[in-house]
Amino acid sequence: MSEHIKEKEVQHEDHKSVEVLESPEVLQDRLNSSVEYVKEHKNKLSYIVGAIALIVGGFFFYRYYQSTQNLEAQKAMFQSVYYFEADSLNKALNGDGKNPGLKEIADDFGGTQAGNLANYYVGTIYLKQGKFDESITYLSAFSSSDLVVQARAYCLLGDANMEKNNLDEALTFYQKAANDHPNKEFTPRYLMKLALAAELKKDNSKAIEAYDKIVNEYPLAQEMNDAKKYKALLEGVK
User: Fold this and answer.
1) For the CA atoms of 220, 221, 222, 225, what is the dihedral angle to 10 degrees?
2) 144-238: which CATH architecture?
3) pLDDT digits (tens, 9 = 90+) for 26-82
4) Looking at residue 237, what is its pLDDT?
5) How far is residue 183's CA from residue 92's CA, in Å, rounded to a whole number?
6) What is the pTM of this model?
7) What does each C-alpha distance from 80 to 112, 118, 165, 173 come to in angstroms?
8) CA 219, 225, 227 angle in degrees (round to 5)?
9) How far apart are alpha carbons 151 and 183 in whole angstroms?
10) How far is CA 236 from CA 200, 206, 210, 229, in A?
11) Closest among 119, 105, 99, 101 to 71, alpha carbons compared
12) Reduced to 3 states, what is the DSSP secondary structure of residue 71?
């Protein structure tokens, strides 16, 4: 087929399209068809529109509900946090008869930011009380993007597993703590715990690696001298 014929066909198709767009009769037919379609499927379309409205409305209601629940949880935990900081751990955990304890807040408001933070406090209290399984349960339910607190939670999970002699889990959580937003204030401490867990597991190369990181990357840390000494002792064993 010649290029000329092809061009003619394209022009013909374009002309047909223009005729459709400009013809009142054709447009009326199209409109009537659309109206008939809507009439025939009115119920189905109503369900679809209703479902979309329900989803959108539900989303905004959920966001509002979460916001009010979070404010309620924040108010409820104020006194319990005070008890925690005063080392009145039983009152902080279980309440004082007038105010709810952190455990109740964590259980009842777990989907809120305040409830999430209550998980951290409860896990910390249980660790101090020697209830390591409970501590692991609540600390595992906590998550945060905070530069300090999440790493601290990982470290506490490492401590709880160390107390249970779960050395593999302890190593995992100490490593997470050391890798989470490294900083000169806390990371050396996490690395020392990591090295100790590695030594107990007879993984001297892992321990040396942790000590070496303190020596080379955190030379001003308080832990540096001990890290240097323990590293040399382990290297002498190899």
Assistant:
1) -70
2) Alpha Horseshoe (1.25)
3) 555 655 565 555 555 556 655 565 556 555 544 333 343 445 556 676 777 888 989
4) 64
5) 30
6) 0.71
7) 17, 10, 31, 27
8) 90
9) 11
10) 17, 15, 16, 11
11) 105
12) helix
Q: Where are the domains of the chain?
A: 144-238
Distance CA 94, CA 189 (A): 31
- Cα separation, 71 vs 55, whole angstroms: 24
DSSP code of residue 203: -
Q: How far is residue 156's CA from residue 177's CA, in Å, rounded to a whole number?
A: 9
Contact 184, 220 (CB under 8 A): yes
Pairwise CA distance, residues 223 & 228, whole Å: 9
The CA distance from 44 to 18, in Å, is 34
How many Cα atoms within 13 Å fall on the side-chain side of residue 110? 12
The token duo for 60 is 């905004």
Spatial separation of the C-alpha atoms in residues 218 and 202, rounded to whole Å: 25
Nearest to 121 by CA among 108, 102, 143: 102
